[in-house]
Amino acid sequence: MTRKKPSTAPGVSSAAPVPKPPDTLEGNPWLAAAAIVVLVFVAYARVWGAGFIWDDDAHVTPVALRSAHGLWRIWTEPGATQQYYPLLHSLFWLEFRLWGDASLGYHLANLLLHSSVAILLALTLRRLGLKGAWVAAAIFAVHPVMVESVAWISEQKNTLSAALYFAAALAYLNFDTRRRPGAYGLATLLFVGALTAKTVTATLPAALLVIFWWQRGKLSLRRDVAPLLPWFALSGVAGLVTAWMERTSVGATGEMFKIGGIERFLIAGRAVGFYFGKLLVPSDLIFIYPRWEISRAHWVDWLPLAGPMLVMVLAWSMRHRSRAPLAVILLYVGTLFPALGFIDVYPFQFSFVADHFQYLAAPVVIAGIVAGLGAAFARVGSRARPFLFAGAAVTTVLCAAATCRSSARFVDSETIWRDTLARNPGCWMARNNLGADLLQAGHPDEAVALIESAVQLAPRNPAGRINLGEARLMAGRVSEALTEFREAVALAPANAEAQADLASGLLQQGNKAEAATHAAEALRLRPGLAKAWSVQGNIELANDRRDAALENFNRALTLDPSDVSARSNRGAILAQEGRLDEAIVEFQRAALTQPRNAAFQLNLATAQFQAGHLAPALASFRRAVDLPNAPAAAHRNFGLALLQSGDAGAAEVQFRAAVASDPHDAESHRQLGGILYRRGDLDAARRELERAGPLK
Q: Does the N terminus or the C terminus of the chain have fewer Cβ atoms within 10 A?
C-alpha cells in the first residue's frame, strides 16, 4: 500500500525545500560585515580626534620621500625608511597624497583596515567550518588589547599586514581544495604583500601546516608541505632582512640586548602566559609595560615557563581525542614566536612585551574559545542558544566599552606618556619622551626633571643623555650639555643625533674645529638627518660663509620642514640681507611651531618692527615678554617699539624689566634715562645715563 504524497502550496516546488531566511548575523555575511564596521567605528569614536604620538613622524612619509622618486626609494633603498616594509610605506605615501599631515585620515584608514581584518578573520573561520565565526570576529574587533594597534598610527603595519595575512590564508585554502595554479599565484602574491607590510606574517606557512594537521590528522609531504616550501624561503629572507634592519637602522643593539640563551627561554615562557592572561582579563593595559629582570639563577623565574610547558604536554596527551587544543596552542605560540625574545627588536630595551605584539596571534585564542564554547553548548541543545547569544552580546559590549575608554589614552603624545607613567612609574622611556615633548613645548623645568630621572633610571641609554644635553643647551649651560653629549657619543658612537648635538654644543663653546669634525661624522652616519645639516649651517655661519650656511639650512628644511632651528637661522640670514618680508615668514613658522619659545617670538617681533609693521610687532613683542625667562632683549626691543607708538609709560615698564633682567643692558639704561629726562626727573635720569655711559 502506498501513501499519498502531501500536496504542495501553490507556486512552491516539492523538489527542493524552501530556504529559511537568515535571522542572525551568522546567516547573513553582508549584514555581519557591516555590523563589524559600525561596531569598530563606534568603539573607537575617541580616536577620530586623536593626533600623532611617539614615532608616528617616522612613518608618515617624510619630505624627502614624498615625490615619485621617493616612492621608488621606498622600494629600492633599505634604510630610506625606519624599517624595510615597502608596501606599508607606500600606503603611507599614498595617504599623505590624500590628506597630508591631517591625522584624521590616517586614523580612519586604520579603523577600516582593522575592520577588514575582523571580517577576513570571520571568513577564514567559516571556511574552516568553525562555529561562531562572526562572534569571534566581533570580539576581536573591539577587544581592548587591540587598541594599541588600531589607535596608534604607526601600527598601521599591524592592520595592513594582518589583512593581507588572512586574505592570503583564504586564497591558499581555496588552492588547497581546487589545486588551481591561479589560486596559488594569488595566495603567493598576497603573502608577499603581507611580508612587505610586516614580517611577523612570515609565520603563515607554518600556521597553514598546523591547520592541515588539525583537519587531517597527518601531513602529506607532496600535498601539504611541498607547495609551501617557497613560502618558507620567502619568510626566511624577509626575516633576515628585518633582523638586519633592526640592528643596523632601528637600533636593536647595545648592552640591553645582551641576554643569555636560557634567559631568552624564560622570557618566552613568561611572555606567553602574560599575553594569554591579557586576552582573558584585559585589565591594567599599559603602553609600555615594566621590563622584567630575568635570571637563570632565580628559581622563581623558571615558574612562568612551567605553565605553558604543562599545558602543551596535556594538549599533546589528548591529541587522539581532539587535536583542536594542541592546534590552538601551536598556532598561538607560533604566531607569537617573533616577539617572544629570541629575535632582538628595538622595544626590548624598555619592555619584553607589548599589546601590539599579539595582534596577529590573538584571533587564534579568541576563535578557539568561542568555537569550544559553541560546541559545548551545542551538545546541550537548542535551549542553550539564548544563553550563548546573551554571553556573546555581553562580552562584545563590555569589550567595546573598555576599548572606548582605553583608546582615549592615544589622543596625543603627552596623554599617552602621562598615562604610562601613572601605571609604570619606573619607565625611563616615558620619562625621557615626555620630557622631550615638554622641552619642545616650552616647559623646561618639568622637562629637565623628567629627563634627569630617566637618565638616573637608565644611565647607559644614549637617548636620555641626548635629551638632557639639549635641555642644558637651551638653558645656556653649555659645559654641562657637552658632558651629556660626550657621554652619549661614548655610549653610541654610531648615533648620528648624538654626534650632531655634540657638534652644536662645541660650536656654542667656540670650538669650531672640533664641532666641524662631529658634524661631518653625523652627516656620514646619516645623510638624511636634518639636524646635522642645520648644525653644519651654523658652523658655516660662524665662519662667516653666509651663502654656504643658507644652503645648509635649506637642505635641513627640505629634509624636515619642522626643524625650527634651521628655519629661525635661515630667517636671521634673510633679515641680515635686508629680505625682511621673507625673514618674517620664516620667523612666523618657527614661532607657530613653538609658540612658547621666547627667542622665536622675539625674532619675529624684531623683524616686523624693522620692516615697519608696528602693530603686529607690538603683538609679537607682547607674546615674547609674557613667556617665562624672556630675555632682556625682548623687553628692550618692546620698549623701543612702544616709544615709537607714543606710549612712553608702557615703554618705561619694559626698559625697567630689561635692566632688572640684565643690569648691564646699556641701551635700556640709556632709553630709561631719556624717558626720565623728558619727564623732568633729572636726578634719576642722570643716574640711568651714568650707568649707560661707562657700560658703552
A: N
